């Protein structure tokens, strides 16, 4: 399959664009429920339970309030058109800005030229979730089953974007996360931070297809879950495609993950505590868990600043330079056709494994160049290289 070889064009802008919906309901079907502007939000909160086709057109959500679409009837469709605005809340709050949870067989879509605007530029201070103002997460997707989220564009997220937890058989297709405006000098108190695009936990059969991401943290971070696929995506400016950190949670198993046919580019938003990488597995120091059957297939790295490929079993140690621990096993780690470049100040590959915890690795057609060769790799299993 063909790898995406160049970055996608820049986002077209943040202006709201009017959208139309062609009539598609035949006689005897219930007409769609349409909610528009600031009055539309008030009406939406009182929506009739019979609404199976919800249209949100240029919706204005009050500051500091969640757009709550939880507990929708099975089979409901929600369509975003125009610009959905989530204003800045000066006192700060944890969010989420939008919640779609505890339902099944939903279709959540954004029409072409629609966007969900999170007012991130008013929150950004270079400190992310550790700043003096609590910043809201954007899009909570919890306990969703047999559903599709497609064509959604997120613009200027304050911190983490999609928080996916407890889901089964969910597809996210053609999603865009545009946080390019959040690139900035963290040390100068500027820019977005902790803007993970997709955080996944305790979920199974989650597929992310054709995502386009410009952000300042992990493009994907899988903390727990099984049968997860990220395919045909672009991740630019952030920290790459990550497993973990694994360990220290109520669910510490990540199994059967495929990252395929994707580009990781310009991972450059670094601070003394951040790790801009391409492909990464991180397990927490002194914890237990399982990481197995992880595959990166046809992944291109472009201008990675710190590590092209990294496996670290001493994440979040009690002291600097603490040795890796072996409580979280990493087995069946496969790389096929993972190629590209690291900047000269970075390191091509770094492997830091505990005693006996890294096994059954198979790397083929791995060609990462441009950076340094590490002299600190530890317990590299057969089938891999450092």
Automatic annotation (TrEMBL):
Its EC number is 3.2.1.15. It catalyses: (1,4-alpha-D-galacturonosyl)n+m + H2O = (1,4-alpha-D-galacturonosyl)n + (1,4-alpha-D-galacturonosyl)m. The keyword Secreted applies. It is found in: Secreted. It comes from the Eukaryota. The keyword Transcription regulation does not apply. Residues 1-18 form the signal peptide. The active site is at residue 239. PROSITE patterns: POLYGALACTURONASE. One of its GO terms (molecular function) is polygalacturonase activity. GO terms for biological process: cell wall organization; pectin catabolic process. Its main location: secreted. It is an enzyme of class 3 (hydrolase). GO terms for cellular component: extracellular region. SUPFAM superfamilies: Pectin lyase-like. Keywords: Cell wall biogenesis/degradation, Disulfide bond, Glycosidase, Hydrolase, Repeat, Secreted, Signal, Zymogen. InterPro entries: Glyco_hydro_28, Glycosyl_hydrlase_28, PbH1, Pectin_lyas_fold, Pectin_lyase_fold/virulence. Belongs to the glycosyl hydrolase 28 family. This is endo-polygalacturonase. It comes from Neurospora tetraspora. The lineage of its organism: Eukaryota, Fungi, Dikarya, Ascomycota, Pezizomycotina.
